[in-house]
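Sequence of DNA-(apurinic or apyrimidinic site) lyase (Paenibacillus foliorum).
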Amino acid sequence: MPELPEMENYRLLLSSRIIGIPISVVEVEREKSINTSVEIFQRQLLGSSILHIERRAKHLLFHLNTTKVLVLHLMLGGMMFYGSGEDRPERTVQITISWGNRHLYFIGLRLGYLHLHDALEAEKLLKKLGPEPLETGFTFNEFVSLLERNRGTLKSTLVDQSIIAGIGNCYSDEICFEAGLLPARRCQQLQREEFERLYLSMRQVLQTATRQGGYMEMPLFPGDSLTGGYDSRCKVYDREGEPCVRCGSPLVRQDVSSKKSFCCLNCQS
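Predicted 3D structure, token representation.
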């Protein structure tokens, strides 16, 4: 599932390509992926343009010049591709938004969605989300206050969107590895020095992953050499059986809080 770095990468790359251009065609091949009738959805979008794209947690918000907002959550298996009709990937496309001969394909939206809301509706829907981990205002002290009163594991706490927004299975494991902490550790067991390592690791991993394009497998557009650049740099996620880059011990998979998790039992504690 795309997490903060993947969605931020999408936001940055799309912003220079689709903002300010009137939408010419809207095709919906799966009505369950939207929250209105196809007719209303098309009528609201056709002729409008995107003023700016915002990311909130794992969502992208496409702010239209009509004051409407498209709220995208790709969920498990969802992705996007931008290009010409000739470039259309051989994947199942649920929604296509076009600007002349350029198209944005929304792929794999079986669990994900692209919903149309008024601006206030969109704001209300996202109020339940926790703070953004890379915001300058999200201080170490606030981080500690959120985690130390939580009874759960690091894994369950880091992926809880109501506590901290944007982190999922992949980056929770990468963050714990960088901090030298096991995902199964309980938040209430951590010492202040361990909280410091975790906070710094969270910011470092998310910033690095964003700069390197996240771990998504498919380029966003033809010639895109950035998207997915972090995949090969993941140190523990989906690396079961491989040697730890820090100590050489085999990495293991452990289900933590009913979620798959990867770690090194030797150099994480």
